[in-house]
């Protein structure tokens, strides 16, 4: 993790999209671990859960609370915030962004959660300037991590990659490569400078030989 932290700090990027070819490769674990190790060296970290299909980061970092405001279809599109009582109120862009950022149990790490759903990021962000939002957040945080849904199944990563500096795919050592995986790999290779490298997750120490 310290080596990975060094790679992040040396990359020149501030915003990172963590993705995978298929589900269950360990994206959430990697993001949480990276955020924690960066917080140990006093970096300000923001996690944005943009995996609307499987919002594990939200479930892990935000308690179930109706008062927590999250990225959600309809609310985000119209700039409306749910109050938990069925009422809606329109608020300015800057106030909206501030209202959906919450602290975690770890000092220096904040999170923007999402309410889940089948919509893609472009549908969720429609009607808002997400680039402007990211630029504003980059002034407040040293590093920002987003999570994309599995490349083999959804277009989310392809829609999110334009908003970040670097893309970081995660592979699990127990996974096997299939034809669909090679199509996703071809896409990753086409990204040139945005593809930072990759993380091989789930290696057992007993499998390592010197």
Care to describe what's here?
There is one protein chain. With 210 residues, the chain is of the alpha/beta class. The protein has helices at residues 2-10, 27-40, 56-61, 75-78, 93-99, 121-124, 130-140, 156-160, 179-189, and strands at 15-20, 45-48, 80-82, 88-90, 102-103, 109-112, 143-147, 166-172, 199-201. It has a seven-stranded mixed β-sheet with strand order 5-6-2-7-1-8-9. A two-stranded antiparallel sheet has the order 3-4. Helix 9 links the parallel strand 8 (166-172) and strand 9 (199-201). It is globular and about 50 Å long. The model is unreliable at 73-86 (pLDDT under 50).
Query: Helicity level, as a percent range?
Result: 25-40%
Query: Runs with pLDDT <50, length 5+?
Result: 73-86
Shape: globular
Number of β-strand runs: 9
Helix/strand order, N-terminal first = HEHEHHEEHEEHHEHEHE
Mean pLDDT, to the nearest integer, reads: 82
Roughly what fraction of the amino acids lie in strands?
Answer: 15-25%
Radius of gyration: 17 Å
Structural class: alpha/beta
Strand order of the largest sheet: 5-6-2-7-1-8-9
Q: N-to-C terminal Cα separation, in Å?
A: 20 Å
Assembly state: single chain
DSSP helical segment count:
9
Biggest sheet record: 7 strands, mixed
């Amino acid at each position: 993790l310290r080596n990975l932290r060094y790679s992040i700090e040396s990359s020149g990027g501030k915003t990172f999209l963590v993705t995978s070819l298929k589900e269950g490769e360990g994206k959430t674990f990697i993001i949480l671990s990276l955020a924690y190790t960066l917080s140990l060296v006093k970096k300000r970290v923001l996690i944005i859960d943009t995996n609307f299909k499987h919002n594990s980061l939200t479930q892990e970092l935000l308690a179930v609370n109706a008062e927590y405001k999250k990225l959600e279809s309809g609310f985000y599109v119209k700039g409306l915030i749910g109050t938990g009582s069925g009422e809606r109120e329109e608020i300015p862009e800057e106030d909206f962004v501030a209202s959906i950022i919450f602290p975690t149990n770890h000092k220096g790490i904040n999170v923007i959660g999402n309410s889940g759903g089948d919509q893609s990021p472009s549908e969720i962000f429609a009607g808002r300037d997400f680039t402007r939002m990211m630029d504003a957040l980059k002034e407040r945080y040293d590093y920002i991590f987003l999570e994309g849904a599995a490349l083999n199944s959804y277009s989310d990563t392809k829609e999110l990659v334009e908003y970040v500096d670097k893309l970081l795919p995660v592979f699990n050592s127990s996974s096997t490569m299939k034809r669909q995986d090679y199509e996703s790999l071809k896409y990753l290779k086409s990204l040139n400078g945005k593809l930072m490298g990759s993380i091989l997750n789930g290696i057992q120490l007993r499998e390592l030989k010197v």
